[in-house]
Amino acid sequence: MFNGLKGKCALFASTVAASLVLAQPASAQVESIKIAAPFGMTGAVGPFAKPYVPALELAIKFINDNGGIKSLGGAPLELLLQDNQSDPKNAVRLLREMKEQGAVVAVAPFASGMVLAAKPVLADLDLPILVPSLARSITEDNANNVIWRISNIDEALVNDAMNMIEHAIKAGDIEVDSIGIVAQAGGAGAPFAAAIEARAKEMGLSVVNIAYDASETRNFGPIVAQLAEADVDIVSGFMYTGDALQFAEAYLLQEWEPSQGFVWMAGAHGEYGFRRELGAETVGWMDAGFAATAGCETMQKFAADYEASYGEPLVGLVPAAPAVIAVIADALERAGSTEPAAIKAALAATDLDYCEHPLYALAGGVRFNANGDNERFVSTIVQHEGELDLIPVWPESVATRAPAWPAR
User: Which of 12, 51, 60, 326 would bridge with 360, disulfide CB 3.0–4.6 Å?
Assistant: First the structure.
């Protein structure tokens, strides 16, 4: 059934793109292809956005240095970057301004709440946006097909991580009877916690689910004490950077350890900034996220160039940046047009394998379903190693070694 839908999408994409290419032939000179980027460089989203933006800029340079968008006369990509200060109202205002400046597509490591706030505006502007955000609601009622998620929904990412845990249980590598969940009560935390709990119960595990108010919780000692009292075997959940650091500091002050350690979900624990703060204190911890470059020669060079220029490794959310640019460049090349209808039709027909495009190195590849979710995305789980390293350990297709248990 899907193959038929995919064929129809591809036919629609090629038909629309072809008709628009007649109006804007491949030989036409487009001065530049503007990409709206109203990022939260300061505020709560800052720790995610700051390392992400240099990766976007480096990926755009790669495309431009290799001839730009050839079907549009070699037009270069141009990033319209401004700080939204992690404020949804600012993000919405900037999107409108950038559309007026000629933006034809947008990108964002917005927090899920900001993407949701921007949805009506994006639909009104008919401005396609590519995001790595994970909340299911982002692509529900995706008006005018403007949101394209290069990852999948939070539940799918949780299942990837729980598959790894279940595999280790069945292989006899670990014994797990219980799991503790610590997540923000609002925002992205709640759906992650619900998905972890649902899958854990399917696996026959007992669950201690602790939700906290991110605006009020500064002392995580009582939460760690609650986990210790239940003596859970694994701790999981979702946190932003400030909370993750405070939780880790509270945990390190106590003597209790979960027998099999920590497997976090797509939050701050897989970011280099978290490791830099705590160094060797969190060796063994795992996080399910985006990082994958193994086996991609061009991406390994890209990662080396990124680290040389920015001073940090290409880990955490950051590999999603070149992946986003790869998908945009691929769609523009096939569309041969900057018209929204042609770009969206080309996005709908996207079908890339892992490493098929020089900048696409997320496990699984990319193919969007009817909601705009990447149904082929597979989360890459990294494990803390040494002083600062984050090592891909799952899935096997991108892992550089097997997971080391216990994860602590």
Answer: 326
